[in-house]
């Protein structure tokens, strides 16, 4: 197997003749792009990076054209962690701290997100091509676990009834992760020739998890995908697929910001304009600035659709 190390890489693989699949991901360019917009404390950066790796791993198996949005609503030093990734592994991420939060480098997940036991983990599956009346699927569970991997494992078992194991690590340079999943019996496993017995599936799953548990965080941080795959599973018969390449991509637009202002309502927008003179909105993900003056806002509420009201790109003020 040859991996293009010049790009961020996600490698999918299956265990031959067993309902067990796996993925390894390495995200460096996109992760640095995400960080270039914000300066996060070390502990927050590590959590967000682990969520970035996890979102890519889960998005690689989406069965629809759309996005997966992972959110942690915290009641500690961090208010919100958000990562969005679509089926093409285009992703963006952001974090919001509580005002005045002083985050120690060694802060635990409980300190950061679940000080009072009210933290929540949310996954939203949002199809791009919705049929009339279709709403995104959203699963919400309590924040159970001492690290991001355990939180997601608990969610997958509780909400998806799927045995999942995750190993995640992130620093300022790279976010990496390993995912293993035991698939339901009689599932259609891509690339599989014949299915093993239930006992053989369980044996393969147990062995794969034991091999994954030998992986130390430092090794995960410093070892590329190809080397990790070979080191962990060299005695197993596995089948690998063409690598995929996560990239940073922000979906913000002037039209979406206009929609947000319309949802606030004319009275509230006019009140804000009276106080500020012009409304300036910066995207939380990429930092892009969108400015709306009194004329822009009047057009928003005078038009039938936001697309008719927002100015063309060439006239956007910066």
From TrEMBL:
<dbReference type="InterPro" id="IPR016153">
    <property type="entry name" value="Heat_shock_Hsp33_N"/>
</dbReference>
<keyword id="KW-0963">Cytoplasm</keyword>
<dbReference type="InterPro" id="IPR016154">
    <property type="entry name" value="Heat_shock_Hsp33_C"/>
</dbReference>
<dbReference type="GO" id="GO:0044183">
    <property type="term" value="F:protein folding chaperone"/>
</dbReference>
<dbReference type="Pfam" id="PF01430">
    <property type="entry name" value="HSP33"/>
</dbReference>
<dbReference type="GO" id="GO:0005737">
    <property type="term" value="C:cytoplasm"/>
</dbReference>
<keyword id="KW-0143">Chaperone</keyword>
<keyword id="KW-0676">Redox-active center</keyword>
<keyword id="KW-1015">Disulfide bond</keyword>
<protein>
    <submittedName>
        <fullName>Hsp33 family molecular chaperone HslO</fullName>
    </submittedName>
</protein>
<dbReference type="GO" id="GO:0051082">
    <property type="term" value="F:unfolded protein binding"/>
</dbReference>
<dbReference type="GO" id="GO:0042026">
    <property type="term" value="P:protein refolding"/>
</dbReference>
<keyword id="KW-0862">Zinc</keyword>
<dbReference type="InterPro" id="IPR000397">
    <property type="entry name" value="Heat_shock_Hsp33"/>
</dbReference>
<dbReference type="InterPro" id="IPR023212">
    <property type="entry name" value="Hsp33_helix_hairpin_bin_dom_sf"/>
</dbReference>
């Amino acid at each position: 197997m040859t991996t293009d190390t010049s790009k961020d890489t996600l490698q999918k693989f299956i265990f031959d003749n067993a309902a067990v699949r796996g993925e390894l991901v390495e995200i460096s360019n996109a992760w640095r792009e995400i960080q270039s917009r914000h300066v996060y404390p070390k502990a927050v950066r590590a959590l967000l990076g682990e969520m970035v790796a996890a979102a890519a791993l889960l998005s690689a198996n989406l069965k629809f054209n759309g996005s997966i949005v992972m959110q942690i609503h915290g009641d500690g030093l961090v208010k919100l962690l958000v990562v969005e990734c679509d089926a093409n592994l285009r992703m963006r991420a952001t974090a919001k701290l509580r005002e005045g939060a002083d985050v120690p480098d060694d802060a635990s997940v409980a300190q950061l997100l679940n000080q009072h036991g009210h933290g929540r983990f949310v996954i939203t599956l949002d199809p791009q091509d919705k049929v009339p009346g279709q709403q995104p699927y959203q699963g919400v569970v309590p924040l159970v676990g001492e690290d991001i991997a355990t939180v997601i494992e608990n969610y997958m078992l509780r909400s998806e009834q799927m045995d999942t194991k995750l190993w995640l690590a992130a620093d300022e340079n790279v976010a990496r992760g390993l995912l293993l999943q035991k698939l339901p019996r009689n599932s259609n496993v891509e690339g599989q020739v014949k299915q093993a017995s239930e006992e053989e599936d369980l044996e393969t799953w147990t062995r794969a998890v034991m091999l994954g548990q030998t992986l130390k965080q430092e090794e995960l941080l410093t070892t590329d995908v190809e080397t990790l795959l070979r080191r962990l599973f060299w005695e197993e018969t596995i089948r690998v697929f063409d690598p995929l390449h996560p990239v940073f991509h922000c979906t913000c637009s002037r039209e979406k910001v206009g929609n947000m202002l319309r949802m606030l309502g004319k009275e509230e927008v006019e009140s804000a304009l009276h106080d500020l003179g012009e409304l300036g909105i910066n995207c939380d993900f990429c930092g892009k600035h969108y400015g709306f003056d009194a004329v822009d806002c009047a057009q928003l509420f005078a038009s039938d659709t936001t697309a008719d009201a927002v100015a063309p790109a060439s006239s956007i003020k910066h």
